[in-house]
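Worked example (supplementary).
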Amino acid sequence: NAGVTQTPKFQVLKTGQSMTLQCAQDMNHNSMYWYRQDPGMGLRLIYYSASEGTTDKGEVPNGYNVSRLNKREFSLRLESAAPSQTSVYFCASSAGETQYFGPGTRLLVL
Amino acid sequence: GNSVTQMEGPVTLSEEAFLTINCTYTATGYPSLFWYVQYPGEGLQLLLKATKADDKGSNKGFEATYRKETTSFHLEKGSVQVSDSAVYFCALSDRTGGSYIPTFGRGTSLIVHP
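After joint prediction of all chains, the assembly is encoded as:
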């Protein structure tokens, strides 16, 4: 039982490049979330998915897209990366109120 | 909208000292309240939670009581250890449509010296 896994662990991009962050959970949870964590800002919700086939915007969705591929997987795509998207990205899943987090992806945009 | 305010850090303590990290919240409904902990290089993990007023959550020697009258959920531990050094996040969870949408505080870094 791996819980929530994220790939890659670390990525460096140049401004304008695109990439997809992958997330998978093996706990059969309906809901999945993407957050970014910046120093002094806590966690901010980018997008969430209440169930397979649905996605909704969170607090900071601009510059991102998501896909809920199936019940297990929820990916986050940066179409044209900007230095302001340098951050640590966390995926989480839940079956109720408690969130279960992945280990994070550190993204540096130059 | 919902919001969570927690004391700024870092909080620096000696081993075996008493810990308090303050957390207050604003919410329109009756949310559940949480403390999550983040160890260096890792994701957040649940430390404790309380689902209604006057409930006390506890885990690993940490405690917090849901105080509706003061809209607070302060985290306490009687005797901290070096291994408690981490970032602590207060959060509330509110149901929106089919999902629970959490609101996190900005986090408080705790550093415990031997």
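Two points are worth noting when inspecting this output. Residues 30 and 51 of chain A are 5 Å apart (CA to CA). The two ends of chain A are 36 Å apart (CA to CA).
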